[in-house]
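The freezer alarm interrupted the setup, so I double-checked each line after restarting. Inputs confirmed:
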Amino acid sequence: MPDAWVSVSLTSLALLAGLVLLAASVNMFGLSKRWDPSLKHCFVTGGSSGAGLALAKLLAQNGAHVSIVARDQAKLNKALEELEAARQNPQQVFRAYSFSVNTEAGSAAAIEAASEPFDGRCPDAFFLCAGASRPGFFVEQTEESLRTGMEQTYYAQAFTALAASKTMVQQGVKGKIVFCSSILGYFSMVGYSTYSPGKFAIRGLAETLQSEFMLYGIDVHVAFPGTIYSPGYEEENRVKPKVTLKIEETDEGATPEVVAKIILDGVRSGKFHITVDFIGNVFRSSTAGSTERNSYALDWVHGLIGYIALPIWRNSVDSTVLKHREEHEAYLRERGLRS
Amino acid sequence: MFGFSKRWDPHLKHCFATGGSSGAGLAFAKLLAQNGAYVFIVSRDQAKLNKALEELEAARQNSQQVFRAYSFSVNTEAGSAAAIKAASKPFDGRCPDAFSLCAGASRPGFFVEQTEESLRTGMEQTYYAQAFTALVSPMRHRKPWSSKASRLKGKIVFCSSTLGYFSMVGHSTYSPEKFAIRGLAETLQSEFMLYGIEVHVAFPGTIYSPGYSEENRVKPKVTLKIEETDEGATPEVVAKIILDGVRSGKFHITVDFIGNVFRSSTAGSTERNSYALDWVHGLIGYIALPIWRNSVDSTVLKHREEHEVYLRERGLLS
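Predicted 3D structure, all chains:
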């Protein structure tokens, strides 16, 4: 039918024109200039283990001053040794601080301590890797466990972002904040009611600040890694519901080092959302909405793949959950959760 | 799937509505009453609750319907549990069939003016107020899925916002929470397939309610400027669209064209209502949203000088 072809052609032309226009406008605000960590002061929370430590070591290898913050002093000491092993030149300053960053006061104190070797000048880049996951069925949660989940995912980063922003604005430092969300900040499923909301919230905060910090020349980045083979992951799998483990059994994860490298590359090249593998790219492209994209052309491809593949994948996730109903009934009965 | 094709009917269903004494929550409660439901509204302000109860009575369809208004603070598990227990009493302890969680408030402002307290308050009012009610709602009391009684499907309706699909300057105490509501709804939509409970989440934009006037009193000028061309809707219009969405089994419920565009453009693996329609909305979004975003960013950048003066006045620059 001629009319339909005309419509399709016009739509495609409009799309092409749009893509060309948008591809041209991708590099704004000097993001095309690559950021160099060399001799920048990088502040890393959750920096004594997992991806946080890998990121800290990578920054050290790239010539940065690195301050890592966590709670466990023993882990911090060990991490500091690993940073020293990555030293590139004698100018670099490596420090490890024991602070609890899930309050504004704790975060502010950590930043103040880290600024001391620099005559009070605050760090140039804040990598907020603090976080933990404790999956489980929603019916087994309590007010306390939901609150703890939010503390461990959202507040662990939000208050450091708050303290860091105030300091950077006060001192006129045009720095960077790098949040760590998760692919479970793009979608969710059974078992993640204590984790996903907080990771979605991290995205919400990053989206707000990416806009708002244009007032200050502060760049915002947010990473969305999937499974990371770290001590935290093993801990998480100990308590994860069987049905969730089943759904995830074909997932491929990555080592902290691989994830850290991709995140640092993304920060260097000015990407707002940073995803670490093909699945991450598909989710990123399929959920972007009005979020600043890195490549409108590439995202079109990933988005198209997602439009077809994600519903198919989702159907199989739903099937697995439905098949689990009987076993789950028995599980509830054993725990006296059935009246 | 799961009988979504059969339209849900509020008639004689036991509906529990938080944030039910004003705004969209009240409009939704009245609409349920007009459709023959039993309605229990919960909020904190007793005076508002009394007035709301009168409005429910005015919407009464038959003498069987039961309307009640309870004053409870639902942002703790205990408060939510007490509210649901009170609402179950007239039914010999049988808990509600449908939960409409409209509790929430917005207090916009610049991030650098926030404190730990203000960020936590935002989470309390907007996320926990809905999460804890969802926590205490029916699972523990529902019959096993294999029994006949379970064919009466329970429902939970969360209230997020278009600011749960995107964000911008001024909404750091609200958007994270609305994104979190989406995250919880996405988790439970999957998990509650274990129990036969259907999850819905609404994403309204601007609603012309008392809450909106309050919100605009404190909203940063630059945010107001960006939003000046936004069209809002009355609570009644929003409530009708949400109820229609719940009836027809839509997971994400958006209330206008902009909402549809955002919904389609951010869906990812989320269950869609119409893959064909979403393709059109998504295409429009792919072209139009970045253009809109560019203008938002421009407005923010132009505001830099004025903002610097603002910060200096408040001693936030050294």
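Quick read of the result. Chain A touches chain B through 87 residues (CB under 8 Å).
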